Amino acid sequence: MIEAVGLTKRYGAKTAVYNLSFQVRPGAVTGFLGPNGSGKSTTMRMILGLDNPTAGHVTIAGHPYRKLPNAPRQVGALLDAKAVHGGRHARNHLLCLAQLSGIPARRVDEVLGVVGLQDVAKKRSKGFSLGMGQRLGIAAALLGDPQVLLFDEPVNGLDPEGILWVRNLMKALAAEGRTVFVSSHLMSEMALTADHLIVIGRGQMLADMSVRDFISANSADFARVRTPDTEPAAREKLSSALTEAGGHVLPEADGALRVTGLALPRISDLAHDSDVRLWELSPHQASLEEAYMRMTQGAVDYRSTIDQKAGLQQQVAPPQGQFQAPVPGQGQHGWYAPPSPQQGGQPFAMPQGAPVQPGAPMQQGAPVPNPYAQPAAAPVAQAPAAPVTAPPVTAPPVAAPPVPPQPAAAPADAPAPSLTKPENNENGAAR
User: Fold this and answer.
1) Could you give phi then psi for residue 295, rounded to 5 degrees?
2) CB-based contact 135:115 (threshold 8 Å)
3) Kindly report the CA angle at 256 between 255 and 258, in degrees rounded to 5?
4) Residue 2 pLDDT > 90
5) Under a CB-based contact definition with an 8 Å cutoff, are residues 295 and 204 in contact?
6) Is the pLDDT score of 351 beyond 70?
7) What mean pLDDT do residues 251-266 have?
8) Which residues are 115's β-sheet partners?
9) Is 277 exposed, middle or buried (0-12, 13-18, 19+ CB in 10 A)?
10) How far is CA 245 from CA 212, 238, 260, 328, in A?
């Protein structure tokens, strides 16, 4: 088991990890999620003793990694698949690692067969593809037959068959009672592989719960209700009945109704009592990706402005007369509210009740009112400034009259200087 208590890591003025406490238990695949720069790789390096924590501690089976007897036989890790000497054959690379840890040479051939590299065992690793390099890194992690395994992006570069193989391998290792800790950005793969999730953002803990609880706590489940398209009056009648019963009803583009706040049996009973036929009554639950995006939207450091313009992170106020669907789990364990701008947060979501101007770009790191108050005030203050440039345009005609009178006042003296200049230039050279 891996246990971290108050784990903190600072690099000068930057805090990469702050006060992380968690447990990775054996017998389950634990997913380690977080945006880029959230501190996942730093945390794994501290677990393996590659970085010393600034505060707190982390242990494996009750001991720091550096104090584990024959650590490679107890802990296997894949952090960087490219950390291989390109001139070595795949088998020689694993053989060197085995000899350093006292592992029999026959184990090298076994893990090469497990990862499917037995046919290229005598090829140099510098000619390996990205997927083959990942397989070689996994083979190195399995070399000592350890009880604790850490993988950082293990499916990077693998084809669909390789991804399925890694998924089944992770599950098989956990089923044997091993501790499996996997970091990945593929939400669809984590949904199929992980049993438990640890989510961090900006180096701090956001969630530590099962996959099912995580999705339920960070998604707005709703029921999709559809009535016959030829009966619009029945649709309005059902909508009124659901609203009176305490539900929140929002129309969808295809004519269906999105209902929150009421269970499916209750919706069915209300439709029956209202004598309204239903063509569809189905539950909708968010995917792991949707729940993850909802939780980490305030902890993303690198965000495209195109996403903001598309409204992916900006909440648009519902039309007047409609209700905004409540979010189950808000205020409970597992719910993450992005920090306020005064606390250094990212104001990508509008506060409740604030007007939203369509197409207005959101400015990262700026106070929320600024993107909406400044554009309206700036044109008014600069509008009168444009005519100020008109007086300088009339100034040249006023100053021009004094210039002609000077040559006109002395016409007799004027020819002398004017004649000498052309005389000097008649032959193309000065006399």
Assistant:
1) -75, -40
2) yes
3) 135
4) yes
5) no
6) no
7) 89
8) none
9) exposed
10) 28, 11, 11, 18
Contact 177, 187 (CB under 8 A): no
Q: What is the pLDDT of residue 310?
A: 52
CB 225 within 8 A of CB 238: yes
Query: Regarding beta strands 2-11 and 55-60, do their DSSP bridges make them parallel or antiparallel, or are they unpaired?
Result: antiparallel
Judged against a pLDDT cut of 90, whether residue 324 lies above it is answered with no
Cβ neighbours, 10 Å, residue 41: 20
Tens of pLDDT, residues 160-173: 999 999 999 999 99
How many Cα atoms within 13 Å fall on the side-chain side of residue 198? 26
Q: Which residue has the tokens 């996997």?
A: 182
Mean of pLDDT values over 378-384? 44
Rounded Cα distance between 348 and 146, Å, is: 44
Spacing of C-alpha 88 from chain mean position: 37
| pLDDT over threshold 70, residue 59 | yes
The dihedral through the CA atoms of 139, 211, 299, 308 has a sign that is positive
Of 136, 151, 143, give the one whose Cα is nearest residue 182.
Answer: 151
Per the rule left: phi > 0, alpha: psi between -120 and 50, beta: everything else, 19 is: left
In the block, residue with structure tokens 């300088």: 392
Phi, psi at 16, each rounded to 5°? -80, -40
Q: What is the pLDDT of residue 158?
A: 87
Instruction: To the nearest 10°, report the CA torsion of 343, 344, 350, 353.
Output: 20
